[in-house]
Amino acid sequence: METCWEEAGWERLAPGVARRRMPEWDETVGVVVGRTDILVVDTGATLRAGAELRSGITRLTGRRPTRIALTHPHFDHVLGSAAFAGCEVYGATGLDGLLRREREALREDAIRHGVDRDAATEAVDHLVSPHHLVCGELSLDLGGRTVLLANVGPGHTAHDLAVLVPGRPEVVFCGDLVEESGTPQAGPDAIPGHWPAALDRLLALGSADARYVPGHGSVVDAAFVRAQRDELAARFGVSG
């Protein structure tokens, strides 16, 4: 089964843990397979992308995904969510209200970045708000394995959620708190003064040997995250 993930365009990170770098915006989507539940980390930029992810995961595992963790509220990470009908959705505290208030801004941001207008409108019209909000940390039992959802922000946004998958190796899905394929993007919703501290919390979450999965780009190690933390502190004039 592990070979099948790679043949289907996924990167195997650990037993039962994989990620896919999506075309167009290079956003990462992750999957964690337990005996009873399957967790998807982020859902792509359109309903079509979400549907393709759902059907691909179902084909590879023989089961439908049951849970979704959204790392932050940008279009390329959340707009595929409605394609995962019946899934329980998790996000950082306040994400539900933001997605209700900012639907038009989310749609316009997607269009500005190249999503077809009709596809963006359809995805936003059917956008799913989180059913479960994470204030500190929340453990999820997937059957035979437990993952930890951690509200480590604010930083890249006001609603940054990381996902720790224990094991050998540990895997940490970072969302866009970490980027490898380019300079981390600080848009109008970023909170630069808190971003380095968010990366400190991210590093405390995973071990020194963990594999850190950025929102965009290749998997990195703790040394990379620490160096990016220092670069952001210098860039934003944050001491400590």
Summarize the structure.
The protein has 240 residues and is of the alpha/beta class.
Protein model, in words:
The chain is α/β, with parallel strands linked by helices. 32% of the residues lie in helices and 25% in strands. The strands form 2 sheets. The chain has a 7-stranded mixed beta sheet. Strands 8-9-10-11-12 form a 5-stranded mixed beta sheet, with helices on one face. Strand 3 and strand 4 (38-41) form a beta hairpin. Helix 7 (195-205) packs antiparallel against helix 8. The longest helix has 15 residues, at 47-61. It is globular and about 50 Å long. The mean pLDDT is 96. It comes from Streptomyces javensis. This is MBL fold metallo-hydrolase. Pfam families: Lactamase_B. InterPro entries: Metallo-B-lactamas (IPR001279), NDM-1-like (IPR050855), RibonucZ/Hydroxyglut_hydro (IPR036866). Residues 26-216 form the Metallo-beta-lactamase domain.
